[in-house]
Amino acid sequence: MLVRRNPGWTIPEREVTPESSFFGRRAALAAGLAGTGLVLPPSRAGATGLPVAMRNPRYKAERAITPEREATTYNNYYEFGSHKTISAAAQKLPLRPWTVRVEGMVERPAEFGLDDLLRRLPIEERVYRHRCVEAWAMVVPWTGFQLSELLKLAGPLGSAKYVRFETAAVPAVMPGLRQSWYPWPYVEGCTIAEAANELSFMVVGAYGKPLPPQNGGPVRMHFPWKYGFKSGKSIVRIVLTDQKPVSFWEKIQPQEYGFWANVNPAVPHPRWSQATERMLGTDERVPTQLFNGYGEFVAGLYEGLQRERLWA
Ligand SMILES: Nc1nc2c(c(=O)[nH]1)N[C@H]1C(S)=C(S)[C@@H](COP(=O)(O)O)O[C@H]1N2
Ligand SMILES: [Mo]
User: Fold this and answer.
1) pLDDT in tens, 295-307
2) Span 62-302: which CATH code?
3) For a pocket test of ligand 1, which of 74, 75, 76, 227 has the largest count of ligand atoms closer than 8 A to its C-beta?
4) Contact yes or no for 271/56 (Cβ under 8 A)
């Protein structure tokens, strides 16, 4: 069992997007950016209703950005079907109104309107690598806010040890829900320390546009150092708890999928190697990196946990 005296909610100073970034006019922003190291992405955001977000240069993908068409047409979203071509079907998911309930072991449980969150929280763009456990990968410019910013609004209690994320279940538009052998709704989870990590991101946009439903719109998780299944889509409920969440895939195949699911090229899936990955839109295979290349940010989270099944 993990012992955490410091729940880690004091987020250290980092290169943050300045206050003026939200809803600021691009020209004013650009003028104020000189010397800050921040750059404006080639964004069409102003035209789409997504807040203007500056790209945070702290997070480097060191790979080419995946073509938007590939990332938005090759998806895993089992609520819409257990195959990759669900993007057309997913257009039926109503993205507004949308609320995210944050409850459980928090001082101020609340239901947040998504548009309200977009006005209240610092929004930025981060180019993150994504690595599916099936050994394909992509690089996507996500727009969003740090998970810790949302959790701070609710005030996590010291007794909370884990965070559980629940996806919307909308039977009228999600044919997959009729496959009753699956343990709907899709649930994922992480520890409080993982949730507090600066990389843990809630995504509301991709490629400078509102996040499309097939990628988990209007709001999804992204934990870039973990296999993709940990990053639940279309989130409606976040519960802080002292019970370790048992996630969707872990319930279905506990021999193959575990709680931690950190990316590791040296630990094969029971049915295939994890040493390399195929970049979406190419035939190119590239070497997989420990923690998907994010070890400098997250390796410290797992010190002392070597006996846990950290890699499945
Ligand atoms: N609700 C829900 N979230 C989900 C999934 C899913 O089937 N349902 N698939 C997961 C898997 S396996 C991956 S790889 C990513 C895929 O995200 P993408 O379609 O944006 O590439 O979403 C994850 N989140
Ligand atoms: Mo995945």
Assistant:
1) 999 999 999 999 9
2) 3.90.420.10
3) 76
4) no
